[in-house]
Amino acid sequence: MALVVPVTVTAQTNAPAGPAVAKPAPVADLVRAVDIPYEQFTLPNGLRVVVHTDRKAPVVAVSVWYDVGSKHEPAGKTGFAHLFEHLMFNGSENAPGDFFEPLKQVGATDLNGTTYFDRTNYFETVPTAALEQALYLESDRMGYLTGAISQAVLDEQRGVVQNEKREGDNQPYGLVSYKLIEGVFPDGHPYGHSTIGSMADLDKASLGDVKAWFRDHYGPNNAVLVLAGDIDVATAKRLTAKYFGAIKPGPKSVAPAAAVPTLAASKAEVMKDRVAAPLIIKSWPVPGLNDPAAPALEVAAAVLGGLASSRFDNALVKGDKTAVQVSASYSDYAQVGTFTISAVVRPDVDPATVSKRLDALVADFIRTGPTADEVQRTLTSTIARRIGGLEAVGGFGGKAVALAEGALYSNDPGFYKKQLARLAAQTPASVKAAAQQWLTRPAYALTVVPGDRDAYAEAEVPPAVATTTAPETPPKGTRAPMPAVGTVGTLAFPAIERARLANGVELIYANRTTVPVTQMVASFDAGVAADVPDKLGTQAMMLAMIDEGTQRLDSFQLAEAKERLGLDIYTGSSPDRTTVSFRAPSANLAPAAGLWAELLRAPSFPDSELPRVRGQMLTQIAQELTDPEGIAQRIVPPILYGAGSPYAKSRGSGDAAAVKALTRRDLVGFHQAWMRPDKAKIFVVSDRPLAEIKATLDTALAGWTATGIAGTKVFREDRMLPAPRILLVDRPNSPQSRITGGLRTSLKGTDDLLPLITANDALGGDFLGRINMDLREAKHWSYGAFGNFNRNAFAAPYVIVAPVQADKTGASIASMRQELSAFVGAKPLTQAEFDRTITGATRSLAGDFETSGAVLGAMQANDLYRRPDNYYATITQRYRAMTRDELDRAIRSVIDPNRFVWVVIGDAKVVRPQLDTLGLPVEVTSAASVAGASEESK
Q1: Which is nearest to 219 in space by CA: 149, 141, 115?
Q2: C-alpha 328: how far from chain center
Q3: Measured between alpha carbons, how far is 425 from 375 in angstroms, rounded to an integer?
Q4: In what order do the strands lie in the sheet with 59-66?
Q5: Which strands form 323-332's sheet, in the order they lie side by side?
Q6: How far is CA 175 from the centre of its chain?
Q7: What pLDDT is recorded for position 454?
Q8: What letter would DSSP give residue 472?
Q9: Would you give the end-to-end CA distance of the chain in angstroms?
Q10: Residues 558-585: pLDDT tens digits?
Q11: Mind listing the pLDDT tens digit for each residue in 4-56?
């Protein structure tokens, strides 16, 4: 339980007078900090190769971008590009089997593939010594794929994709994107259908269709290969010629005609969904990223609804309080774009009222344009975030992505620099002109209101089909064998330094100089476990209110001050810790730290803002109760920890009745009991030296001392284990069931769990784990299923999460129980699984900690779990000393398949008959009843 001693509700006497005003770094200086030097060349077969050298870590990002996306799909073949993305992970002629297997063994990180309107990409970051193997794999699926695609492989991945679609459709507002695309683009427009496609088109895809699709679109002359990291151009030329040079070019992709459409007239539609609050969306078709208007539209979106101080926020959320959330965004595709605004309406407000206010705000913006200060704040915030995003060489948004996008969409790998220069050149006049040109045209509007969804074909339970597992096949030998991996370089985890501020707060610091950015986290020993037992949601409300103002600045002024500095401040909580985080360009370190410290130590919790924020929180709670994941979050924690554990308080955003009754006194009391220097540690990763960081924080936090009595958390062992059973929460007409399997253990997060976590890699912790490979790859009943230890300081239960198609719910639970029993029984961890896990874990370390954010997270984890600062610097030796038998014994000592409690969120009329066959008691409740659940279901 958590104890909070009553306190008087007064402003802290040690509040600062406010940071000295300092001039932010000029935008031009920030733009100059974004630089990705590159060289490029083209192979005779047309493969374009872009090379960027970055020697900070012994890793190379391999990123292959194909000029094929959903815009290239003809009628009747929607979803083909995305389906093929999945097929290309299922092995090629000379590297058969799942591509994740060899890439796991080489220690690949940031490994994935994605498809969108304009492209399909595949990427991984690998140790330098494994680069040749990665290039072999990428070239084999580029040039030697069709012989590996069988009917069984096609059926398998078709099922996976369809469950990916069901998983998205099953969310609140899950059908909105389809309506939006159809409303903005006319029938037959290349951008007029979703990337994931229709169930019917996916069902019709034949083996001949997909092989023809590959031959038409995946030649080297339709691809850009970016190599970024520990590589030079000479090496890149030699290796790309070796592995890609023999691949013959194919037909050249031709961009379809895709003019920016003009709607004949504005159109408005209404749809019903299982949501707690209405949603209004309005979208305009606009030009794409290569159009001169693109940067102006980006600024317009930020000013209207992107900034924390946006006009929509100020008018609708903070002003008349008719909306609980607003946004505006500009989506810049290669040939067209969309400009979209939205508002989640307060549940007791007529959506028509908010719709009219949105129209009036847009009209005023078109008439007057943005102010110079609004433009400047947008530029600083946007460019500061892009600087931080370029620290990684690969992944979803690193330097390889910036170069590949430029090459593919704009025929210029350095286009990112032109984009930033054009963005920095925007003025109020240029933004106003773009808004007047494009936002005065007809728009599509969609209003989503609470109610039962109308029936739609894609939610229907699919007809039963026989499942055929794709057989294992040997390499076909159509080229030389796969090269071996060389000696992988060891992790150079940064040295951790510690100091104490003048007020006694411990400072834990690491130096990283890749980007000129400073990240800090003030971590307080509080967390959800500290929430007030009979007022669950107090901590969440305190965090929601903490940036509503200080004694010097109101919420409007605070938001604008952050934007002028390019400062992002985030709040968060885990079961054990409450955090207030900071990220800013190091050029603005002193004023940004001063503002962060002001908010940290002296938030005003203004009474005037409390009703609005409370309304937002209540809407969030109601939204959680319409979402399968949100429902599970309220039921599972008491099962995992025991109803009396502080961790059992971890139930979404809190209790609605308690949140309604919270007062400013409650929030101030919680803040003074828990958000105090004697419960704080500050973690920093920066390019600036420790001495400068310490001096800056000593100044910013001077005089910050604890007042009143600190809160306490009490953990007691609950020896009453939950009875094995199935809890079914009825959510009618759900196309998927969300399954959670929970096992309470006697473990603590501070125990040495490395052997258990390592053993679990082969069971549930990895894509190649048995649970996922069975439900996703073998049976294609799920888009992904995983099991892991939920590691908290004083508890570490084991939790499986598996969203599965509704008609396979019972069979999926039976299958997972079989996998669990086999892993700790007759089919234990194999030597091959052990070798793969250890090899992958040791080789991936350099990639795991490439970014400052990853290092910052590791520093906090080491502190929470009471591990030494050099834990990751020495972990390789620990991995290499492990044995298969040691890991087998460890996992057998914890996993008991017969003690799991299974929670299912799904359609009871479909699911209940399946569950009744499993030999476990089944308890049924409604989704509506979960809101009042305050203890473990009886």
Answers
A1: 141
A2: 20
A3: 10
A4: 39-42, 48-53, 223-229, 59-66, 120-127, 109-115
A5: 267-273, 444-450, 279-287, 336-345, 323-332
A6: 20
A7: 87
A8: P
A9: 21
A10: 999 999 999 999 999 999 999 999 999 9
A11: 332 333 334 354 545 445 678 888 888 888 899 999 999 999 999 999 999 98
The C-alpha atoms of residue 141 and residue 135 are separated, in whole angstroms, by 10
User: What are the start-end ranges of the E strands in 313-357?
Assistant: 323-332, 336-345
Q: Is the pLDDT of residue 587 over 90?
A: yes
Give, in degrees to the nearest 5, the angle at Cα 74 between 71 and 79. Answer: 65
Cα separation, 560 vs 326, whole angstroms: 17
Rounded CA separation 214/191 (Å): 21
Q: Are 489 and 131 in contact (CB under 8 A)?
A: no
Distance CA 567, CA 598 (A): 13
Which among 865, 587, 768 has a CA at the least distance from the CA of 98?
A: 768
Q: pLDDT value at position 718?
A: 78
Give me 456's structure tokens: 């739609």
Give dist(CA 596, CA 562) in Å, integer. 9
CA 275 to CA 730: how far, in whole Å? 16
Confidence (pTM):
0.92
Residues 6 or more apart whose CB falls under 8 angstroms from that of 157 comprise 83, 86, 87, 90, 780
Q: What is the pLDDT of residues 647-683, one digit of tens each?
A: 999 989 999 999 999 999 999 999 999 999 999 999 9
- Percent of the chain clearing pLDDT 70 (strictly above): 95
CA dihedral sign, ordered 377, 380, 385, 386:
positive
pLDDT, position 935: 35
Q: Phi-psi region for residue 188, left (φ > 0), alpha (ψ -120 to 50) or beta?
A: left
Strands 568-573 and 578-585 turn out to be antiparallel
